[in-house]
Amino acid sequence: MLEPDSGTGLDASRLRILSDSQRLQPAAIRDGALADVLEALTRAQTLVIGYRDAADKLTRPVIHPQALLQRGPRVYLFAMKNDEALVRMYALHRITSSALGSEPARQAADFDLDREIRRGNADSGTGDRY
């Protein structure tokens, strides 16, 4: 999947690993969630997930993956939810279930992973720094 000449590779605009200045504990990611996210991102397909947010609310959105980022020991997916245009961060350790969708994922017209990192939006799901 990382072969740039294959036409479906995950280049630096879609996958990034950043070192973290704070020591976070690795979060447990459900078996299969990372594989499902990588496949959806590589194939540019939707992903149907169960997601438990910080307030313990469980939702089941269809998400449109844009990019994957590892920040220290935590992994985050930038994606749009359902029919929304806003790109959000989803912590992979909060995904309770996942399945590859049947539809092509919408691509955000103005999403740029480098810009999100420069703006500090890769530091937490709210854009706030730790």
Describe this structure as you would to a colleague.
The chain contains two helices and seven strands. Strands 1, 2, 3, 4, 5, 6 and 7 form a seven-stranded mixed sheet that branches. It has a single domain, classed as SH3 type barrels, CATH 2.30.30. With 130 residues, it is mainly β. The longest helix is centred in the first third of the chain and has 11 residues, at 33-43. It is 13% helix and 36% strand. It has helices spanning 33-43, 113-118; strands spanning 15-18, 45-52, 58-59, 62-71, 74-81, 87-91, 95-104. A hairpin with a 2-residue loop joins strand 4 (62-71) and strand 5 (74-81).
Structural topology:
Elements: E1 15-18, H1 33-43, E2 45-52, E3 58-59, E4 62-71, E5 74-81, E6 87-91, E7 95-104, H2 113-118
Parallel strand pairs: 1-4
Antiparallel strand pairs: 2-3, 2-4, 2-7, 4-5, 5-6
Number of helices: 2
CATH class categorisation: Mainly Beta
CATH-level-2 architecture: Roll
Tally of discrete structural domains:
1
The gross shape turns out to be globular
Describe the oligomeric state of these chains in a short phrase.
Answer: single chain
Strand content: 35-45%
Q: pLDDT average, as an integer?
A: 86
